[in-house]
Write a structure and sequence with these properties.
The complex is a heterodimer of chains A (about 475) and B (about 700). Chain A is built from 20 helices and no strands. Chain A is mainly alpha-helical. Chain A has one domain. In chain A, helix 1 runs antiparallel to helix 4. In chain B, helix 10 links the parallel strand 7 and strand 8. With about 700 residues, chain B is of the alpha/beta class. Chain B contains 24 helices and 11 strands. Chain B is globular, with a radius of gyration of 29 Å. Chain B has 3 domains: about 90 residues, no CATH class; about 300 residues, Aminopeptidase, CATH 3.40.630; about 180 residues, no CATH class. In chain B, helix 21 packs antiparallel against helix 24. The chains are: A mainly alpha (about 475), B alpha/beta (about 700). Chains A and B meet through helix 19 and helix 20 of A and helix 1, helix 17 and helix 19 of B.
Chain lengths: ~475, ~700
């Protein structure tokens, strides 16, 4: 929700300057305040899955010829261990953290650039389809707002992204993989999309559900208004606009989807082989599955975080635990299918909704996940122009995110509060996220309805 | 989470209001909760007036709503055992006092001799004795210390050996425990200039320590710190606590100036005997259950009874668990016949308007009782006035965020601690009177320690968040929060109604596409002003780099730099002209968020801040739009709303005028950041930006 002050609707040479400024801000914070801003110890920033401290521990274990998963410290991927692990070794004073942070800054930058190109693709498709529908007013709006630039700047300047980047957590890399898969699917680069999806799911499991929007993207192309409208337009009279209108009526391309699935399985196989090689001497793939995916699914770690599950599973009786684990995880899956049916014509938006929902309901959420979906929200800025509650949500996010560290301090350090204080902010945060999702979906549907109304009037005009 | 909820509901409304005109064909039937919200927003003026008045009235009624304290933790059982302190303990204490007094009179090098003497006596009683040497840590302002832990010893400079002070620490190992828990007694004294009161407090601690070495029921170790307060009472205790809680392996002795050890060790042969037993390494015991700071004050103004003053406020308005205060005051009143007092603002005791309110309250109470004898409402005027004076002092001390004594150092380590300041009824030096005094003090300490000794867990049963209106009456968080919430509730309502009005009544907005995102422009302005506030709060760090400057000149440099930065920010980011209503809406909602966050950190600051901010935020209007009277009122509110002006007004109202206001204000601010008070952050990052924005709105040229 944090709109940067730079997002003014003018021509945009300022994009690069303000992107560079955000990178410079990160570098300044990293270089001059390496230890004072201790974000890595915040429960909102680093989770058991993403904490770099745990990764360093796992790498140390691996180097001393033990299983990196020994002792329930590390729960990430073995590939991450091989790639980022060497950076965590303390060569000289503070050097290691600098290298890691640089890696995360680069990841953030690439993510932002990818978001920008996704936005440009989406905008192009949007303008084209709106023109073919004859919705001049909407297409004018679409042209004036470079949604890609806005989205990527929102991502770069979002305080949550910056905090995550400085907080020694690996979520920038997870976010990069998710955005990479979306980008690949938008560009219809099937191998890239498959790679991104496989890596993202490998790193944090929840992006598995993104397979539906990815398949829709690859199969039927970018976000468009509902297909019915085009049919209506062509059926309503003999008005033929073959050039552009028919472009969107292309059928679902099964060939590409099959290709995607093949590529995905190939990449998955490859990743598993790599994992197997990298932990061959100390551990096995079975243990890896148990310690990473098992750890995510069974919510073993009940340290407080901004999610709502830790409190619940700390309270629940042991014999109900399995039941509620199933309930909570099914919860995400329950929403997948209805949303896919309702929003199948807008796969990118569907992906945004899935990411937002999984970041509300995942077992170890962090503000890094919120940073990603808030950035993606910027992609649909034209469609969501009439979104309600935007100011209310902004104030709510601001209030809860300020209150959360205060409550944590009250509970853990001052000892005058208790767990309920912190959990209250976690609940409020979840509520605001839910309102955000509900409102964005409903305003997207309203947008479609408005287009339909417009379509009806043009058809009526044509008939007259 | 009540504020959030209220806030959410009202914002919810605003947007639905905004959407209603669009769905013109059929008016949608809203859910009841939404209709209630729309109703509230439609009558926002009435709601604001009613809520604000109710908030102020509730604040004034707080002394009436105070409840009697009670010991909630059953394990404490105060006063259930008879005191075991005997003649020989007090006799020993008397002898100890005489030695101290004679040493004070004859020796010049008391700074070294007195710790030695105390150590000797501690060792003779059977305690494990050690010295704790520490350097004077200056309270230096560093902007990041609010958010991070201080890095220990980063700015340790080489100083001369004279800058070391010595705490003498004696530990009694509990016979029935494994040494995992401890109770701390602190007696601050100044070895360079020992006063008779400090001697007496050492004597009380001695008598208690003496009896505790002999008892069999101890389950927690007893640590007695004779804290060398030549660099301040707080510093000595906090230095000891810091070293106690940061385990050092071998390196500590080097840090603590081993080189100086030699010079101090040139001692007379008389005390050589104990040298083997006293170690310079810090001796540890377990985690601390509670700490009692014992002080003796000068004779109370009215004779008749010994008085016990309890000081409890720690940094940032934190209080110890109420049970600790309850135990001590219960034992003092019912066991030893002390008169227990909490600090109160004396100048309020004969204020006319407070008496008037008290009269009204009493009359209402009498009328209520005449209607129904079951209604126990209302208290006598005198009680009301005294309760209010105590409450104001309690609020002020909490809001300041500066601890009222060395007990504050313990709260930073989650240890409950209070200062017990005993003032004897007569300052007679007669032997008999002194012995009786030592007896009573010793019994009180012994009783309190025996109670705490019974604890199985930390203090957790009773309240941590409360305000005291007298030593046996308190207002819990659930009651005082109501007053605060009533006071701030109009803010979100007003923000919502302004927002929806601005969205509705904008003629050109009908075709504007990003109607619901128009709040982004005022938000940018508000964000910039808050950024300015953050910069202003960091400026003193740089001003301190200027050597040899007077407080007045520092203050002026600060003010001019702030103004300069404000103009630079203003000219750099040329603000697109925004509707004043939207700007006010955003300002008001940031003020609401800021006040709510602050109320969790330090309630008293938020309450006082809300009293200043809420009327200003509610009333403010551009002078072109508002009437003459309204504008004049706004001007007055804005002038009072400036922190410096508010400070001087309050000072003169309570009659503390001394010296130049500017200098005084600077010292006041200095004390705030020296103690890392969150109030400073609040003033710079919430109050000041809101004030600037209010001026901005006042001068807005609404086109």
């Amino acid at each position: 929700m944090e709109k940067s002050p730079e997002t003014t609707p003018k021509k945009h040479p300022w994009f690069w300057s303000s992107a560079v400024a955000s990178i410079l801000l990160r570098l300044v914070l990293i270089i001059y305040f390496p230890n004072t801003l201790n974000f890595s110890s915040r429960p909102e920033v680093s989770t058991p899955i993403t904490s770099l401290r745990r990764l360093a521990e796992g790498y140390w274990l691996k180097r001393s010829s033990m299983s990196p998963y020994a002792g329930s410290m590390y729960h990430g991927s073995p590939l991450l261990l091989s790639i980022i692990g060497p950076l965590t070794v303390d060569r000289s004073e503070g050097q290691s953290q600098l290298l890691c942070c640089l890696a995360f800054v680069i990841a953030d930058l690439i993510t932002a650039i990818l978001i920008r190109s996704i936005g440009q693709l989406l905008q192009g498709a949007d303008i084209q389809s709106l023109k073919s529908l004859g919705a001049g007013r909407f297409s004018k709006i679409s042209e004036s707002f470079p949604s890609g630039d806005i989205a990527s700047l929102v991502y770069l300047w979002n305080p949550l992204t910056i905090i995550t980047c400085l907080g020694y957590s690996t979520s920038p890399i997870e976010n990069l993989m998710i955005v990479l898969s979306l980008y690949g699917a938008c560009k219809r680069l099937v191998p890239l999309a498959a790679f991104g999806w496989v890596m993202a799911s490998h790193l944090s499991l929840y992006p598995v559900i993104l397979i539906i929007p990815l398949v829709l993207l690859i199969g039927s192309g970018l976000d468009t208004p509902p297909r019915k409208l085009f049919l209506q337009l062509t059926d309503g009279n003999d008005y033929k606009k073959t050039t552009n209108g028919s472009l969107h009526l292309t059928n679902f391309s099964w060939r590409r989807v099959v290709l995607f699935l093949l590529w995905a399985s190939a990449w998955a196989f490859y990743v598993l082989v790599l994992c197997g090689i990298s932990i061959k001497e100390y551990s096995s793939l079975g243990e890896m599955f148990k310690r990473t995916y098992g750890f995510i699914l069974s919510v073993e770690d009940l340290f407080p975080n901004i999610g709502v599950l830790w409190y619940f599973f700390a309270e629940v009786f042991d014999f109900f635990r399995d039941f509620f684990l199933i309930v909570f995880h099914i919860n995400i899956l329950f929403m997948v299918l209805p949303l896919a049916i309702r929003l199948h014509h807008r796969p990118c938006f569907l992906a945004f909704v899935y990411i937002a929902i999984s970041s509300i309901l995942k077992s170890y959420p962090s503000v890094g996940d919120s940073a990603l979906y808030l950035g993606l929200l910027g992609l649909f800025v034209n469609a969501l122009a009439d979104m309600q509650f935007s100011f209310f949500l902004f104030s709510g996010y601001l209030g809860t995110l300020l209150l959360s560290p205060v409550m944590h301090n009250l509970w853990i350090w001052r000892g005058t509060g208790n767990a309920n204080f912190y959990f209250a902010t976690a609940m409020a945060y979840a509520c605001f996220q839910i309102i955000l999702v509900v409102e964005s979906v409903s305003s997207m549907l309203n947008h479609d309805r408005a287009l339909k109304k417009l379509g009806n009037t043009t058809v009526a005009k044509k008939v007259q | 989470m009540l504020p959030k909820k209220a806030h959410r509901r009202s914002r919810f409304e605003s947007s639905s209001m905004a959407s209603t005109p669009e769905t013109e064909d059929q008016k949608p039937k809203h859910r009841p909760i939404i209709r209630i919200g729309i109703f509230i927003i439609a009558h926002s003026f009435l709601v604001s007036v009613v809520c604000c008045t109710a908030g102020v009235v509730a604040l004034l009624l707080l002394p009436v709503l105070a409840k009697k304290t009670h010991v909630s933790e059953n394990a404490l059982m105060p006063g259930s055992a008879s005191p075991m302190i005997a003649d020989r303990d007090v006799f020993g204490a008397n002898r100890f006092l005489n030695e101290l007094t004679s040493m004070k009179l004859k020796s010049k090098r008391t700074g070294i001799e007195i710790p030695r003497l105390i150590a000797l006596h501690m060792a003779n009683l059977g305690g494990e004795v050690s010295y704790h040497k520490f350097q004077n840590q200056e309270n230096k302002f560093h902007p990041l210390h609010f958010f991070t832990s201080q890095d220990a010893g980063a700015n340790r400079v080489n100083r001369t050996c004279e800058s070391y002070a010595t705490n003498t620490v004696g530990i009694i190992r509990a016979p029935r425990s494994d040494g995992k828990e401890a109770i701390v007694l602190v007696t601050p004294y100044n070895p360079v200039n020992l006063s008779q009161n400090e001697v007496l407090s050492l004597g009380i601690a001695y008598s208690a320590f003496s009896v505790l070495t002999q008892v069999t029921w101890l389950a927690k170790d007893i640590i007695w710190i004779a804290a060398d307060s030549q660099y301040g009472e707080y510093n000595s205790v906090s230095a000891w606590l810091k070293d106690y809680h940061t385990p050092s392996f071998g390196g500590s002795r080097k840090l603590h100036g081993n080189g100086c050890h030699k010079s101090n060790d040139v001692h007379e042969s008389k005390l050589d005997i104990i040298e083997t037993e006293v170690s310079d390494t810090l001796r540890h015991s377990g985690t601390m259950a509670a700490a009692l700071v014992i002080k003796v004050a000068n004779t109370g103004e009215e004779g008749g009874q010994d008085t016990l003053n309890i000081y409890a406020e720690a940094s940032n308005g934190q209080m110890p668990n109420l049970d600790l205060i309850n135990v001590v005051s219960y034992l003092a009143v019912y066991g030893q016949g002390f008169r227990v007092q909490v600090e109160k603002l004396v100048s309020l005791l004969d204020s006319k308007w407070l008496k008037f309110i008290g009269d009204v309250v009493e009359t209402v109470g009498i009328i209520a009782r005449s209607l129904n004898p079951q209604w126990k409402f209302g208290i006598p005027v005198k009680e009301y006035v005294e309760g209010s004076a105590t409450l104001v002092s309690s609020l002020y001390n909490q809001a300041l965020g500066v601890p009222t004594g060395s007990h504050g150092a313990f709260r930073d380590y989650q240890v409950d601690a209070i200062t017990m300041e005993i003032s004897p009824k007569l300052s007679s030096t007669s032997k008999g009177r002194q012995t009786e005094f030592l007896f009573r003090g010793g019994r009180l300490i012994e009783g309190a320690i025996r109670s705490v000794n019974n604890l199985l867990e930390k203090f957790h049963q009773s309240f941590f968040l409360y305000l005291l209106t007298s030593s046996n009456k308190f207002i819990s968080v659930g009651v005082y929060m109501i007053a605060f919430l009533l006071l701030v509730a109009p803010l979100p309502v007003l923000a919502a109604s302004l927002y929806s009005d601005a969205n509705k009544s904008n003629p050109e907005s009908e075709n504007e596409p990003f109607k619901s995102w128009r709040w982004l422009y005022p938000t940018k302005t508000v964000f910039l002003i808050h950024l300015w506030g953050a910069i202003v709060s960091l400026l003193p760090y740089f001003i301190y780099q200027i050597p040899d400057s007077q407080p007045t000149s520092r203050l002026l440099i600060w003010a001019s730099l702030s103004l300069f930065i404000l103009t630079v920010l203003h000219s750099f980011f040329k603000a697109r002209s925004v509707q004043w209503a939207l700007l006010k809406s955003v300002t008001v909602s940031t003020a609401f968020v800021g006040l709510c966050v602050m109320s969790v950190i330090n309630f008293a600051t938020a309450e006082i801040g809300a009293l200043l901010l809420v009327p200003m935020c509610l009333m403010i209007k551009p002078w072109r739009v508002a009437g003459k009277l309204h504008s004049a009122l706004n001007l007055v509110l804005v002038i009072i709303g400036f922190p410096g002006a508010a400070f001087s007004v309050v000072k003169s109202a309570f009659g503390f005028q001394e010296g130049s206001t500017l200098v005084e204000f600077w010292y006041w601010l200095e004390s705030l950041w020296a103690w890392n008070s969150a109030t400073y952050i609040y003033i710079c990052m919430v109050h000041l930006p809101c004030w600037v924005l209010c001026i901005y709105i006042l001068l807005h040229s609404c086109l």
